[in-house]
Amino acid sequence: MNWLELSLEVESELADDIAAALIPFAAGGVAITSSRIEDDERSGHVAGPLIIRAYLRDDEALEENRTRLERALWYLGRIQELPDPVYTWIPDQDWQTNWRKHYKPLTVGERFLIVPAWESPEIGGRIPILINPGMAFGTGTHPTTRLCLRALEDILQPGDRVADLGAGSGILSIAARKCGAALVHGWDIDEHTISVAEQNQALNKVSGISFAAGSLPDLLASPAAPYDVVFANILAHILTDMLAEGLGDSVRPGGHLILSGILADQLPPIQKQLEALHFQHVALLREEEWCAPVIKKLPSR
Ligand code: SAH
């Protein structure tokens, strides 16, 4: 399998909107990178002009994906002028090398250090999470992942049973287990991600996590449901459907649900949905345009 890399240098304010627009077309993931990583109080962040790279699979849908993607960029370009994207063919064997050039260790929240599998940095008291991104989303560079990791360090209790819906690279599952979760079950609708997540689990030498191809029905049917903590870092419209289809039932009374992948202007309708369910607001975490509601299921009346 070869890949078509699209790259685009943009100002940092626009980077997330562009990445979000590209994600649906980029089976190989979207990376936002910069030559510099700076630490602020809560976490590391990328600095300077940013380069967005999206990886499109070379299959029968490529041309259609490319057309749709260019249309999405055209709309964004009307908000602020964008340079033309640069396309580069990446043969499959160069895939890992390409990631290696652009992916550096990154602190997230108070406790985590995301470490590319091929690096051996100073850990400095943080919990290392080794990630070989492969063809799955979840490298720690994207705010939606980082918000979940921040929520995780705030709410996870040792012994919790955790579900990770849309597990991608497995980053949240691995972090949960390293923070003392008793068991973690991860599902992803994209079966390509399962072996990536399993390899990342092996890299981190943690047991007690199982990844499987699947989605909400599998989560709800799991013998371990309802869980103490459920993460769903997907996309707003998918979360909306899932909430209507019983996502809230996957959490035990007193347990937590963390939703991510929501842009600020997509939040109000989701908040309305949450109010209608039997959930209590705990926190709303934000990074740039992204937000992640953390909610707690009230005991049943
Ligand atoms: N949990 C990781 C990855 C999030 S990316 C992180 O926080 O970084 C979102 C993932 O959800 C992708 O891997 C995508 O394949 C998966 N996904 C998309 N729609 C889904 C659905 N309906 N059910 C399950 N997984 C889905």
Quick recap:
Helix content is 32%, strand content 33%.
Overview of the molecule:
This protein is α/β, with parallel strands linked by helices and 301 residues long. The chain has helices at residues 12-22, 62-79, 95-102, 143-155, 171-178, 192-203, 216-221, 236-244, 267-276, and strands at residues 3-10, 30-33, 36-39, 44-47, 50-57, 86-90, 106-108, 112-116, 127-131, 161-165, 183-188, 209-213, 227-233, 251-260, 262-263, 279-287, 290-297. β7 (106-108) and β8 form a beta hairpin. α1 runs antiparallel to α2, α4 packs parallel to α5 (171-178) and α8 runs parallel beside α9. It is globular, with a radius of gyration of 19 Å. Bound molecules: S-adenosyl-L-homocysteine.
Question: What level of helicity do the residues show?
Answer: 25-40%
Kindly report how far apart the N and C termini lie.
54 Å
Query: Strand tally, please?
Result: 17
Q: What is Rg?
A: 19 Å
Which stretches are low in confidence, meaning pLDDT under 50 for 5 or more residues running? Answer: none
The global form is globular
